[in-house]
Amino acid sequence: MKPVLIRRATIHDAEYISLLARFTFTETFGHNFRDHKDLTDYYDRTFSVSKIRSGLLNDNNIFYIALCDELPVGYAKLKKRSKSEFIDSNEVSQLQKIYILNDFQSVRIGEKLQSALFEETISSGSKFLWLSVLKTNVKAISFYSKHGFNEIGENTFDIGKEHFVFMVMNKNFD
């Protein structure tokens, strides 16, 4: 097995994260888009290098990058102090993203990224960690359930002409 390194991302990783975001989002959700322009417009708004740089500079955001044999193959993002309508507490963080290139998912990088986010959640003083996962993404739901997340609600999100329904899940660290 090739060596895997999980480390906190820096501003110098913005280009890697931007590129990983586009590739992994396409691998995971690309098939849900009837109009490719909706997908590319979303990339420009959400995953541009300048947007990722801005996110990396925000003290509330913590990014991790996963390297396998020195290649960037995944990333994760935690948003500290991110309330949820489903959790009655101010001690809440949000697991916003864990994405790994498909070719590297068998290396258990998701678990390693998630562990780093769990440690960060606890050290930041949050008692709850929540996330949204596409209701049709059975693989991700199974992954999160296996690691102590429970369903607490649902929300929706539109990208271009597409309408998505997400399951909201929560993990309690109290």
What this model shows, in words?
By secondary structure, the chain is an alpha+beta fold. 34% of the residues lie in helices and 34% in strands. It has a single domain, classed as Gcn5-related N-acetyltransferase (GNAT) (Aminopeptidase), CATH 3.40.630.30. The chain is built from five helices and seven strands, in the order βαααβββαβαββ. A hairpin with a 2-residue loop joins strand 2 and strand 3. The longest helix is centred in the first third of the chain and has 16 residues, at 14-29. 26% of the residues are buried.
Q: Which helices and strands appear, and what pairs or packs with what?
A:
Blueprint (H helix, E strand, L loop, with lengths): L3 E5 L5 H16 L6 H11 L2 H9 L3 E8 L2 E9 L12 E9 L8 H15 L4 E7 L3 H9 L3 E10 L2 E11 L2
Relevant terms:
alpha+beta, Aminopeptidase, 7-stranded mixed sheet, 34% strand, globular
What is the averaged pLDDT score?
94
Low-confidence stretches: none
E-strand count: 7
Principal-axes shape call: globular
CATH H level, superfamily name: Gcn5-related N-acetyltransferase (GNAT)
- Biggest sheet statistics: 7 strands, mixed
Q: CATH topology, anyone?
A: Aminopeptidase
- Number of DSSP helical runs: 5
**Global structural class:** alpha+beta
